[in-house]
Amino acid sequence: MPDRLTSLDLTFLKAESAATPMHVGTVDIFEPPVHGDDGFDYESLVALIRDRIAFVPRYRQRIQQVPGRFAGPIWVDDEDFDLTFHVRRSALPRPGTHAQLLELVARIMSRRLDRARPLWEMYLVEGLQGDRFAIIAKSHQALVDGNSTVDIGQVVLDSTAHPRDTPTDTWQPAHPPSALELLAGVFADATRHPAAVLELARAEMASLTGSTSVREVLGDVVGSVVAQRHVQESSLHVKTSGQRRFSTVQTELEDYRTVRAMHGGTVNDVVLAVVAGALRAWMMTRGESVSPTRGVRAVVPVSIRDDDDEEPTSLGSRVIASTVNLPVGENSPVMRLHQISYQTKVHKDTGRAVSARSLVGIAGFAPTTLHALAARVATATVRPIDDVVITNVPGPQFPLYAQGAPMLASYPVVPLMPGQGLSVGVTSYDGKVSFGLNADRTAMPDLVVFAQCVTDALDELLDTTKGSRSRAARGRKKPRTPKKAGS
């Protein structure tokens, strides 16, 4: 029988609107291939996806509704699947700047995916400075579940410049089930999993009648006085528009290790402390009150080990939501780090936390899938009182390649939650820590200021370390503009 969408998948479809598209994305930047004279062009990307898409069969499936909609829809093969519709070509006027690339990313991420087709798109962007190119990918949150489906970005990259061999793809779309077969499938599911069918029916009826609002789906505290006051105080809570801004920051992984070695905690704690410092400085540039007790509630998805009685995912771990109060009112960067480490220690002490080293050992470029899973968890658990979503996923510390082209940087694009103006995605890769900053275009015209605050917050923490390289030795000067990919 075809796979049926889960109640969580239906929640994503229900919560999606023109103002809150529910897809997660990545922006990967490459140099030309190190071998061969043909370079990397649109035909190369189409051929690469055609060779690897068999590893992610869900990417050739679309959503099929059940007659009467009294049960959840199913995934069916798209009989009219057209790879060239999903893999698209774009270009910047040469020499394309990083700022121009970011503007293109923002426009692509603002558009919803076509629900009549498989829920993903990929763009080859040519014309970047230095003969570089970018690949922009986006997948709907209902598509990537980490069990039967991983993100397509995980299967198109290789650990060497020589692409691995793939088996011949003999895929032929299966005929979609008839109305009678769909109904028979519902009755069969009801017999095997009655509770699941009732939950799916409830979610489907809520979607049809509109009886469950987005706020009711995402949280039940919208009417509380505390939540109302908190939202009014924070410039991170906005009326979300349908347009986005996107910015990036690239930093050195060694800097985070230096801070960790001096002050304790983990690299993830240091990343959160950098975000806390950046939020504090950004709020102050806006003239916003930052009292000593002020905090920012961050939803920070984390990976945990599967219990023995749980079905393991394809990645060997699950992702759950964790809430961290970022102490933006604290003036000392070291105290901010210690307060964050104290909060995250509760999760570490459970014994189920998955170390960064274990995650990096996952075959393929797992960060693309783990960011998608983190976004799923955040969307399902975020409440109106929460301020921002931060996903931080470690990646391999060696170069990866797409058809022989070395990848220089990878930036995640985490979707905005309803009513939130900013999301932060972080990926470490090949000695770098890369921030993808996704923001509402109307609410955050000063996103570039926040990006600058990220680099300044890291410098502020580095200034507190002893025995590390001096600022002069690193060649850093203040003020410094955010590093751009490949710069």
Describe the SSE topology:
Layout: H1 7-15, E1 23-30, H2 42-52, E2 61-64, E3 74-77, H3 83-86, E4 87-96, H4 98-110, E5 120-128, E6 132-140, H5 179-192, H6 194-209, H7 214-218, H8 225-233, E7 244-252, H9 253-263, H10 267-285, E8 296-299, E9 302-305, E10 317-320, E11 323-326, H11 333-348, H12 356-360, H13 367-381, E12 388-394, E13 401-402, E14 405-413, E15 422-429, E16 432-440, H14 447-462, H15 471-474
Properties at a glance:
single chain; about 475 residues; Chloramphenicol Acetyltransferase; six-stranded mixed sheet; about 20% strand; globular; disordered C terminus; transferase; Diacylglycerol O-acyltransferase
How would you portray this structure in words?
The chain has 487 residues and is an alpha+beta fold. It has 2 domains: 7-168 and 175-179, Chloramphenicol Acetyltransferase (2-Layer Sandwich); 241-465, Chloramphenicol Acetyltransferase (2-Layer Sandwich). Helix content is 34%, strand content 21%. It is built from 15 helices and 16 strands. The strands form 4 sheets. It has a 6-stranded mixed sheet. The protein has a 6-stranded mixed sheet with strand order 7-16-15-12-8-11, sandwiched between helices. Helix 1 packs parallel to helix 6 and helix 9 crosses helix 10 (267-285). The longest helix has 19 residues, at 267-285. The protein is globular. The N and C termini lie far apart (51 Å). Residues 208-227, 308-314, 351-363, 468-479 and 481-487 have low confidence and may be disordered.
